[in-house]
Amino acid sequence: MSLDDRIRLAASRYLGWRYGHMAMVAEHHFAGVDLALAEVGVIDCSTFTAAVLSCVYPSAGWDREDYADLQIYADRVRAGRRAAPVDAVVRRGVGVRVDALGPGSPEWYLCQGWRGLPSAPTTGHAFLVRDEGGGECTVLASSSVELRGPRWRVTRWVTLLSEYRAALYRARLE
């Protein structure tokens, strides 16, 4: 099964859920993290990307530190760890940090975007992006817009860069 198929399959179980802060889901890939406490049907952007990645890469050896790094927390921003989610996938060997997009076939990325730093650390967003080539991309994210939750949208990389003007960190998933 291709990476594209695995991501789509892992994400499909959350489509239709609402957006909600501090939501967690019943996943078992993060050692020592009790994720069964969540309200089912509600998921935020960080937990959504963590859940998808844990399903796509179950043998990565995810642990409590990885789960924490995949979340967007103000304390990480204040500590200068603005790219903690990207660092987590690189540390587990399932992604490679990139600063520019490469040419070629469609690729998936974990992105950590920031609209305002450092004074407004709560304006961060974690999401998955599929580079479609030619500057176009498909975003898979749990969005707080109208509390819609996980959804797909097609856009352009230049638009994402303008939305996340403060920073847009990326790891190409392998």
Write a brief structural summary:
This protein is α+β, with helices and mostly antiparallel strands and 174 residues long.
What does this structure look like?
This protein has a 6-stranded antiparallel beta sheet, sandwiched between helices. The chain has a two-stranded parallel ribbon with strand order 1-2. The longest helix has 12 residues, at 45-56. Helix content is 28%, strand content 28%. The chain has 174 residues and is an alpha+beta fold. It has one domain. The model has no long low-confidence stretch (mean pLDDT 82).
Name the structural class: alpha+beta
Distance between the termini: 13 Å
How many domains make up the coordinates? 1
| Quaternary structure type | single chain
Radius of gyration: 15 Å
Largest sheet geometry: 6 strands, antiparallel
Strand order of the largest sheet: 3-8-4-5-6-7
Helix fraction, binned, reads 25-40%
Detail the poorly predicted runs.
none
* Average pLDDT over all residues: 82
Work out the number of β strands: 8
Amount of beta strand: 25-35%
SSE map:
Layout: H1 3-12, E1 18-19, E2 42-43, H2 45-56, H3 64-70, H4 74-78, H5 84-91, E3 95-98, E4 107-114, E5 124-133, E6 136-143, E7 149-156, H6 157-163, E8 167-173
Parallel strand pairs: 1-2
Antiparallel strand pairs: 3-8, 4-5, 4-8, 5-6, 6-7
Features of this protein?
single chain, 174 residues, two-stranded parallel sheet, 6 helices, 28% strand, globular
